């Protein structure tokens, strides 16, 4: 059996277990492959347009928005639990029911297994706590296309970086048990929806493949493939008010901060980084926030893809991509930040 160490993925899964202990098994890929009972053909034989059917499903509106590339109206971000559940449910359900539709270079999914624990005892030798300190990834017999597998790894690493922040936010809620119960319900609904989605659309239908592409792009914080199938034109940064853009992006994201509080209007020292063609690829700026120790200075890098803001990298988590707010990105693309 192929085994490999992946500390980032294991940390993410282990911490998520602390948040919602009774739903962890629903997020892992522990089942064996089943017979492929799902058709490779779409349920709608209309060849003039790409068709996609999510009618009657619990997440009908969200799934349809993903297919259409309408990321603005999706009510959560890629690092939130609901999306993690949907993405994992799609990958594992496809692995179980569409095995013959996977490419030859498919990659085996894994599950974490603890191989070393740290046991703490009191002065009398009674065990106080037991914590896993070393994990290995064990193959499950389920497979995914390389692009979906790699995206799942990125999401796992993103979840690892946000795990403690998310736990802190959860425990601050008035009813953390109710939130955990809601996560369980969403997990069950996501699993049922993905099974139905594959039956309704077929494993290799154009509609399902467009949905899969946009699901992956949303997970990566990229721009979607719109319903027309035509890529959007590159947006020019010329005459755009980048200070106002940075202000809006940082302020919007600060609404999710667990402890610090952003000081509105404190963006300063905006600098631009361009490629050798003169296209904007990043801006760097400073800001002020209130923390436990009072007033502090912070900094952030905002990266651009195809002329549009994509990720915010804050100084305290320099390798964690915080997805740029989709509505602000759309406003920027529409020229709302022109001087």
How would you describe this structure to a colleague?
The chain has two domains: 3-219, no CATH class; 242-333. It has nine helices and nine strands. The protein is globular. The protein is of the alpha+beta class. 32% of the residues are buried. Strand 8 and strand 9 form a beta hairpin. It has helices spanning 7-19, 24-27, 60-68, 81-97, 146-172, 176-201, 206-219, 242-254, 326-333, and strands at 3-4, 107-121, 127-144, 261-262, 268-274, 280-291, 294-305, 308-314, 322-323. Strands 4, 5, 6, 7, 8 and 9 form a six-stranded antiparallel beta sheet that branches.
Radius of gyration, rounded? 22 Å
Strand content: 15-25%
Average pLDDT score? 82
As a percent range, the share of helical residues equals 25-40%
State the gist of this model:
With about 350 residues, this protein is an alpha+beta fold.
């Amino acid at each position: 059996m192929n085994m490999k160490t992946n500390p980032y993925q294991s940390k993410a899964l282990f911490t998520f277990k602390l948040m919602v202990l009774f739903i962890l098994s629903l997020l892992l890929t522990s089942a064996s492959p089943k017979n492929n009972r799902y058709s490779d053909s779409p349920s709608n034989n209309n060849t003039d347009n790409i068709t996609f059917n999510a009618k009657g499903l619990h997440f009908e509106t969200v799934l349809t928005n993903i297919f259409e590339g309408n990321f603005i109206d999706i009510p959560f971000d890629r690092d939130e639990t609901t999306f993690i559940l949907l993405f994992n449910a799609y990958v594992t359900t496809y692995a179980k029911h569409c095995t013959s539709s996977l490419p030859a270079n498919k990659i085996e999914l894994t599950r974490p297994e603890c191989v070393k624990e740290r046991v703490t005892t009191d002065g009398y030798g009674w065990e106080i706590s037991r914590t896993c300190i070393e994990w290995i990834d064990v193959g499950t017999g389920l497979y995914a296309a390389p692009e979906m597998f790699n995206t799942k790894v990125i999401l796992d690493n993103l979840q690892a970086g946000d795990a403690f922040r998310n736990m802190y936010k959860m425990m601050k809620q008035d009813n953390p048990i109710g939130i955990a119960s809601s996560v369980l319900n969403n997990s069950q609904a996501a699993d049922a929806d993905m099974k139905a989605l594959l039956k309704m659309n077929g494993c290799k239908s154009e509609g399902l493949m467009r949905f899969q592409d946009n699901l992956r792009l949303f997970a990566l914080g990229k721009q979607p493939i719109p319903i027309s199938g035509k890529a959007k034109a590159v947006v020019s940064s010329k005459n755009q008010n980048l200070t106002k853009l940075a202000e809006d992006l940082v302020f919007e994201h600060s609404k999710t901060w667990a402890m610090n509080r952003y000081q509105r209007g404190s963006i300063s020292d905006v600098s631009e980084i361009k490629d050798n063609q003169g296209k904007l690829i990043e801006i760097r700026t400073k800001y002020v926030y209130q923390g436990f120790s009072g007033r502090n200075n912070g900094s952030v890098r905002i990266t651009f893809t195809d002329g549009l803001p994509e990720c915010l990298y804050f100084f305290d988590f320099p390798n964690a991509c915080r997805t740029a707010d989709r509505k602000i990105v759309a406003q920027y693309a529409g020229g709302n930040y022109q001087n």
